[in-house]
Amino acid sequence: MRPSKNNKTKIRLLIVVFIFGLSSFMAACSNDETNGTTVSEPETQTETDESVDETDPNGLPDPMIAFNTFTQAWINGTYEDMYSLLTSSARRRIDKDTFISRYSDIFSGIRAENLEIIPEEDQPAPVSDEDEHYIHFQLNMDSLAGYLELDEYEMKLVLDRSDDNPRWKIDWTEALIFPNMRAGDRVQARTLHPNRGEIYDRNNQGLAVNEELITIGLVPQDFMEHRDESIPKMAEWLGISEERINQIANQATVANWFYPVVTLPSSQSDLSARLTSLEGVQFQRTEGRVYPGGEATGLLVGYMGPITAEELERYPDHGYTAHDQIGKMGLELAFQDRLRGERGGEILLVDDESGRVIHEVARQDPIHGDRVQLAIDLDVQQKIYNEMRDEPGTAAAVDPRTGEILALVSTPSFDSNVFQTYIPDAVREQWNESEFSYFLNRFNSGYAPGSVFKYVTAAIGLNNQTLDADEVIPISGLHWRPSDSWGSYRITRVRDSGAVDFRDAMVYSDNIYFAMQALRLGRQAYEAGADKFGLNESLPMTYPFYQSQLSNEGLSRETLIADTGYGQGEILISSLHMALIYGTLASDGNMMKPVLELTDAYSPEIWKEGAVEPQYIPLLRDVLRQVVEDSSGSGYTQTEMKRQILGKTGTAELKTSLDDEDAAENGWFIAMDMEQDSLVLAMMIERVDGRGGSRYVVPFVKRALNEIFS
Questions:
Q1: Which residues have a catalytic role annotated?
Q2: What domains, with CATH codes, occur in the chain?
């Protein structure tokens, strides 16, 4: 933190002004008493009139008055007032307009702010028979090169005795801009930009890195003669309209300038070679942001773009300029403050004739952005995305033993690279015409979970000993209500399984059984049990995630408690939160704290201890294993798995009313590797109605797991 000398400077200036004012006042009062007349207002002084200067006992004016007047004008930026104090010989060396523009250009160019000018203590008094006097001082200020303390200034003052009113004048030279500056030197100020921090996965594979890009452009003096044949070829090869290139060509008015058309990743060197084979088409290399994960990580990592006027207004104290690029969404936005780094700067004195640097006034090196390493595994992310890419949905994969997040997938997605290079027309058309948004971050949204939430109901019932796994509950038919007080409202199950125990209810995914268990628990016990799974709490992580909810305003109705028991009602939860919930099956019933970033200080932490009592974990694992292995199970397929898994399906109806018979459905399947307990994958695909409900999702998860396990 820089030292503050404001108070010290202000006190010195106030003392000078006070002494000057008091002397003038006493002199005026003395005249008034002597002459017996009223003191009139003094006439306005001209810019060079210093007849009011204090004098020492020898009759000389005080040079500090001229010094303070000059330096205060410097602080205020009133450079014309500074010029009025110069000696006649200094004025012959530099005219007023040049003087003003030099100070104005230099101090605005170095972004000088909060100037403080402090004379050295114990300045020697002027000698009565000498017409020269020197004052040494220090200039402090904020600048593009940081906080500066320049303490080598020397001001030469010359006593002007040209009339009856001697005055001190400043014998100005360029050294009163910066020490060591000479006539003919110029000031070169440059911002030193930091490297943006990069983002890597757990295996040090890049997710957002700084690499070389290739900018393709045209040079009019060579291109224009061939534009009619070159533009159609360029448009075809790049996948953009001819009009886009024509607009650039029409604005290319300087014959030998390079006019950019598109930017390509360095991996497209073949395309670059084809384009530059055309007459007048050239390339330039530049640095830019590259996203190796492509579409698989688009909604996770996000992208960068030019700062907008609204963003500049939103972050007035962040030091942004209109030329900056900032994170627009995803991790690029979430980690923006850490990735951006801090600018540095340098201020140099340069010989105007030779261009040689003669003195470094100040330099502050930039602070480069942080390197961020995630728990994400790019290979896992890509394998899950490749299975889902044509479906609207979301998936989250975690290591249930540690809470480390291995994948966060949202589909459909976009390739972040196009925002650093260019957007082909076909891609833009695809975005505009799709029924599903490519920019909706589904892994960060909340959804009704359907029957995958039955695991929570089962765990709460077991913890409270209201659920007896061996109890056979007689249920007949597909519809049920506990009493006539429910009116026409009934719970519906998919198959008439007759009497069921806990195993049957989970394998067949029996809604009525779990509605009954929720009603046995009652509101208070159910809500308390749900709290142990982090419902109605934000996930404890820096990335902004949807806060899952059990209900809108509490489980205030019997019907709502019953619906909640099998995952309907008003529950909204993210795929990541569901993956963490199922992770309790691998961590002795504890719910681990989600980990997105791997830091040196990181170690696994429990978020919710004892969400499931440990003695019930073997039972739950076995029952959920049967869901995928029993041929009657909702998660059964004939897919051969590379590892044994457990799992649970869930179909969430998105009814707009109780009578809605054509409601859309979202399908869930959550699976966990049972052999190593190393992975939980929670996947949700939208609009599975008419496609088999949640069973439609099961093959996607199993194929993805086999790819990951292989």
A1: 451
A2: 6-38+48-182 (3.10.450.100), 379-709 (3.40.710.10)
